[in-house]
């Protein structure tokens, strides 16, 4: 039986998930029961059809009378600020993509509405656990509210898990070279964090990353070994992990890493001299870039690309299916 899913918050991640479920992952056995957003249906339908990053939707989109129709498949579309006011009986899982579910009351709204479980598309202290595929998915049980972590945590944690197992990770530092997101303004505007108050497309913006805290949460045995920062750059799509590490065993790192990545469900590898736009719409959590890896006398520099929207949305679907399999 198909997994019945509701999407709450039809922004970059909510729309990417629906686009995936209507295209590359159409046959995954997920039925969209409904979508909810505080923005009007017409605006949401327009942004779903015309996407500045992924291009026009390759199919027919129609909207009207509370329904978003994707290639003739009608999806009820609600316009409700408080999800708990909807009737979600029969919905197995809410994909909570509003960015507001750090608040326990918001995170629980889907359950209050009658849905079976909630998967949050970002860090959340309200979640019973944070699960990152390829890093700590062994802890997946019958939790009712889960967080899928962040895009950067999904990129970094599986890599740390892997290199610690292969070489022994003594310590390191990661900078995510991150495209701008909707959390940054297009022109200077007041924000609590001064760095994030500056025009997103005009400067490289050094700022913080939640990936350090979340990676420690997801990989408690490695907690405290890798610090994290972010450099937000004037690019609209695709980010990179730039990781400098001290490894115990330094023998034949590239070849062993490349062989191990070949068996990973979430990590990839490239030997090509790529730039960020080449990685748009890649489904992996992280694609290691062989040509960018360097080894100094004491430290190694690993580098990988990730499409923070598309890769992460694929992980949301993967995790939803894993949660659904426990129904
Ligand atoms: N953009 C990324 O690359 C990315 C990657 C991984 C995780 N995330 C996380 O996913 C979450 C969403 O990010 P995004 O980039 O999609 O943001 P976004 O701003 O593009 O989308 C959020 C959507 O939620 C809607 N919304 C806000 N309040 C609502 C409410 N009360 N009820 C219903 N809808 C509501 C907004 O109208 C908007 O359409 C954030 O927690 C973010 O950290 C984002």
Automatic annotation (TrEMBL):
Binding annotation for NAD(+): 12-13, 37, 121, 308
InterPro entries: GlycerAld/Erythrose_P_DH (IPR020831), GlycerAld_3-P_DH_cat (IPR020829), GlycerAld_3-P_DH_NAD(P)-bd (IPR020828), NAD(P)-bd_dom_sf (IPR036291)
UniProt-annotated catalytic positions: 151 (nucleophile)
Domain Glyceraldehyde 3-phosphate dehydrogenase NAD(P) binding per the UniProt entry, residue ranges: 3-151
Domain of life: Bacteria
SUPFAM superfamilies reported for this sequence: Glyceraldehyde-3-phosphate dehydrogenase-like, C-terminal domain, NAD(P)-binding Rossmann-fold domains
Keyword NADP: no
Keywords: NAD, Nucleotide-binding, Oxidoreductase
GO molecular function, one term: oxidoreductase activity, acting on the aldehyde or oxo group of donors, NAD or NADP as acceptor
Site positions (Activates thiol group during catalysis): 178
UniProt xrefs under CDD domains: GAPDH_I_N
Family, as annotated: Belongs to the glyceraldehyde-3-phosphate dehydrogenase family.
Cross-referenced PANTHER family: GLYCERALDEHYDE-3-PHOSPHATE DEHYDROGENASE 2
Entry protein name: Glyceraldehyde-3-phosphate dehydrogenase
């Amino acid at each position: 039986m198909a997994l019945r899913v509701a999407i709450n918050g039809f922004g970059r991640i909510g729309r990417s998930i629906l686009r995936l479920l209507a295209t590359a992952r159409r046959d995954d056995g997920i039925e969209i029961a409904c979508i909810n957003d505080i923005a009007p249906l017409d605006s949401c339908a327009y942004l779903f059809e015309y996407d500045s990053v992924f291009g026009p939707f390759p199919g027919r989109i129609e909207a009207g009378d509370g329904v978003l129709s994707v290639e003739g498949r009608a999806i009820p579309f609600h316009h409700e600020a408080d999800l708990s006011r909807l009737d979600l009986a029969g919905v197995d899982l809410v994909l909570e993509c509003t960015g507001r579910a750090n608040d326990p009351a918001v995170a629980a709204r889907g359950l209050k509405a009658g849905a079976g479980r909630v998967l949050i598309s970002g860090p959340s202290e309200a979640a019973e656990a944070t699960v990152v595929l390829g890093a700590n998915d062994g802890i997946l049980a019958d939790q009712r509210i889960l967080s899928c972590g962040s895009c950067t945590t999904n990129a970094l944690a599986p890599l740390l898990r892997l290199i610690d197992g292969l070489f022994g990770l003594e310590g390191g530092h990661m900078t995510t070279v991150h495209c701008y997101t909707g959390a940054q303004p297009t022109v200077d505007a007041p924000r609590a964090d001064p760095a994030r108050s500056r025009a997103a497309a005009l400067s490289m913006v050094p700022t913080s990353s939640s990936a350090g805290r979340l990676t420690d949460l997801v990989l408690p045995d490695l907690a405290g070994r890798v610090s994290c920062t972010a450099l937000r750059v004037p690019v609209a799509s695709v980010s990179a992990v730039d990781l400098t590490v001290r490894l115990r065993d330094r023998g034949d790192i590239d070849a062993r890493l490349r062989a191990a990545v070949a068996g990973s469900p979430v990590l990839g590898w490239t030997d090509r001299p790529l730039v960020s736009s080449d990685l748009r719409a890649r489904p992996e959590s992280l694609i290691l870039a062989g040509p960018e890896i360097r080894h100094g006398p004491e430290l190694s520099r690993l580098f990988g690309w990730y499409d923070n929207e598309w890769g992460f949305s694929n992980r949301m679907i993967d995790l939803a299916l894993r949660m659904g399999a426990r129904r």
